[in-house]
Each structure stands twice: as structure tokens, then as C-alpha cells.
Amino acid sequence: MKKALLFLADGFEEVEALAPLDILRRAGINLLTVSVTGQKTVKSSHQVVIEADIRLEELSVEQAEADVYILPGGMPGSQTLADCQPLHNLLLQANANGKWIAAICAAPMVLGKLGLLAGKEAICYPGVESKLEGARISDQAVVKDSKVITAKGVGVAFDFGYAILKELADAETVEQLKAQMIYTNK
User: Among all residues, which ones are annotated catalytic?
Assistant: First the structure.
């Protein structure tokens, strides 16, 4: 079974987190939500309280191994992710192991800070481009380059979720789920 980790910090954008979570879980992907705050309870940028499955410091070595690592945007959540050294270590290891890393809205700044966008095409929320160090900024809403997926913001959260799913599931599963969810974008 494919596995995903979705990282949450206070101030995350709830749709950017929950749309991909919903898509991946419906498709049978084993997705764990991981709080980087030290508490399981995390508050979104719009004051929606979510209880994460696990705290980052509780992740076992086995639990920390995933097929994709997902970073939702929102502020100050993205900055908190950018300042979280244990998360950086996981992302650098994931990159070294050829795993997928996906970030939306302001969260691609985390990947820029770690040098994971160098020479890659990427996108982010308007105004955050300067933090995508070494990236070639795209005009697309969702961009895949090598093993990195980036997306512009909340309006493309479902596109982002499906871009991730396409890398974890077969085409038939993806198309069946799109039909079930009445998702009409290509």
C-alpha cells in the first residue's frame, strides 16, 4: 500500500491540506497527518481546529518512510514548516531516496530553502517566488518536475491532490475517483 505524510503547522490553509487528504484517502492511500507543533491539535489560518494523527517527534523510522511528503500552504504555517529542522531532515532524506515531495501555495518556500528546487520548474502563491531559490518559475497552476510537485494556491487544491494521486495510483483508479467525486477538470 502506498503511503503519504501530510505535515501541519498552526496557520495552515485547510483546503490545501484537506483536499489532497480526502482524495488520497478515498483512493486507499495510507495518509498520516503529522503535526510539527509539538501538539496533536493544530489550528488552521481560518481558526479551524484539526487533530493530527501523530506529532512529528513521535514518528518512528518506519512511519517516516513514505512515497510522498505533502506540505500545505497558508501563513504562518508555511513559515513554521520552513523553520522546522526535523521536517527539513525528513524532506532531504526523502529527496535523496527519490521520493515525491509536494508543496502548495507558500509552502514551496520550504523546498526552496532546502535547495530542492534548484534547476527545477516550480510555482507558488504570488509574492512568494523570491523564496523558491534556484527554481524556474512557471506560469502553470500545478507543476511536476522530477519528483517535486508544486501548486499555486487554494483554488487548485483539487488539481494538486490529483497530481499527487497520479504518481501513486494507476490511471483507472484516478479516473474512477474523479467520476465519483464529480471532478470535471482534466
Answer: 105
